[in-house]
Design goal:
Layout (H helix, E strand, L loop, with lengths): L1 H10 L8 H7 L7 H18 L4 H10 L4 H4 L9 H16 L4 H16 L3 H23 L4 H14 L3 H9 L1
Helix pairs in contact: 3-4, 3-8, 4-7, 6-7, 7-8, 8-9, 8-10
Length: about 180
């Protein structure tokens, strides 16, 4: 059970890991944490998965795992490193993190992580889009708190480019 406590200790770092884009691009001194973001993604993914009659248990696990590597790597901003290097670094971090779990669980979670990373199942495609929608929702919240629209627009534009599903687009359009 000592390895489980190591696992929980590592992943709890997400609560202290700020989402850097908000800090560096918008100038928010105390932005949401990666854990805050992951929670929002998980709730949204659960709702959209249930509405679409997908495998909600799998998508919830995927949502909780999707940024877990950042408990070691930190939050990279788009363009900071190549997608290939980011994937390599995150895969190494996930191996380290999941190595703290019993082998059967580690194997199960690794398969879910791989599915998310490769983005080839309906759940992984949905989760990638929900990830962008949650970012747009957060941008709208920051706008409502007085942050300048021009600094937040790039987050909305980025979301709009990535979201293809009509149900998610309709939510994005109301933001």
């Amino acid at each position: 059970m000592g390895m489980l406590s190591e696992f929980f200790n590592i992943v709890s770092e997400l609560k202290k890991t700020p989402r850097r884009g908000w800090k560096e691009k918008v100038g928010i001194s105390q932005p949401e944490s990666v854990a805050d973001h992951s929670y929002g993604v998980a709730v949204m993914a659960m709702i959209f998965s249930d509405l679409a009659a997908m495998d909600t248990v799998k998508i919830l696990k995927m949502a909780l795992l999707h940024d877990l590597a950042e408990s070691i790597t930190g939050d990279y901003m788009p363009g900071e490193i190549s997608k290939e290097n980011k994937q390599m670094v995150e895969n190494q971090a996930m191996s380290e993190i999941l190595g703290k779990l019993p082998p059967k669980l580690a194997k199960t979670y690794q398969a879910i992580w791989d599915e998310y990373s490769k983005c080839h199942s309906e759940e992984s495609v949905l989760l990638h889009e929900v990830d962008k929608l949650e970012m747009a929702v957060q941008a709208a919240k920051y706008f409502g708190e007085g942050m300048p629209r021009e600094k937040l627009e790039e987050f909305i534009i980025s979301s709009r480019k990535e979201i293809k599903r009509t149900d998610l687009k309709s939510v994005l359009d109301t933001i």
